[in-house]
Design goal:
Layout (H helix, E strand, L loop, with lengths): L8 H24 L3 E6 L5 E6 H25 L10 H26 L6 H19 L20 H23 L6 H31 L1
Antiparallel strand pairs: 1-2
Length: 219
């Protein structure tokens, strides 16, 4: 099997650096973490989950490494691998973006465990919002495949439905990201409702639109 978008130093230098940095940080964090550290916060920024220092130091770097390897393997496995050449830069960009997002979250969690007061309830929604906006800006450039993008039975059955759904879905992601960035300034009782609304807007909106288009085109 050949890889349609073989990784090279230019495409993977940033992901590899992120993995090295978080790997080295995990060794340091393990040496200085207390035995029990916060690992999860609720929508209001309050700690609602604790874990061991081993879990806190190593879990996210291991997940990041697993995701990186998964990104390398997916083009080999996809029956529509020939399409990857048409969005190879976007694919490598998404790989770097997701690892960068997870790396930032890892350091926010780690520094909080060391006693630094970083407002998780403020920074995480903002980071998620920025992630959504960037993804939405490039979503329309992803070509039909089985692993990346808005994959429904209707987008996978029609290239026209795929393209139009991704243009529409990109706008929903951008709108959802802008709303997510507003989360920290909202009253505490509204934050959870806004989050649910954004998830429903992006997911059900994209799925519903792809079904509507498929039915319209089919008729």
């Amino acid at each position: 099997m050949s890889n349609p978008i073989k990784p090279n130093l230019k495409t993977d230098i940033l992901p590899i650096l992120l993995l090295i940095i978080t790997g080295l940080a995990s060794i340091y964090f393990y040496s200085v973490f207390p035995e029990r550290i916060p690992v999860h916060w609720n929508m209001t920024g309050e700690i609602d989950g604790w874990g061991s220092k081993t879990f806190g130091a190593f879990m996210l770097p291991i997940v990041m490494l697993g995701l990186y390897l998964l990104f390398l393997v997916l083009p080999y496995l996809d029956p529509r691998k020939k399409n990857y050449k048409q969005f190879s830069q976007i694919y490598h960009g998404f790989k770097t973006l997701i690892l960068l997002f997870m790396g930032i979250i890892y350091f926010i969690v780690g520094l909080n465990a060391l006693g630094y007061s970083i407002a998780v309830g403020t920074w995480v929604p903002v980071l998620v919002g920025v992630l959504f906006i960037i993804i939405g800006s490039y979503l329309a450039k992803i070509k039909s495949n089985w692993f990346i993008g808005i994959r429904t039975p209707w987008t996978l059955s029609s290239e026209e439905v795929w393209n139009k759904t991704h243009r529409f879905g990109g706008k929903l992601f951008i709108l959802g990201g802008l709303l997510m960035i507003l989360t920290p300034v909202l009253p505490e009782e509204l934050k959870a409702y806004l989050f649910i609304f954004i998830v429903l807007l992006v997911s059900l909106g994209s799925v519903g639109y792809s079904y509507f288009l498929y039915q319209k085109i089919g008729k």
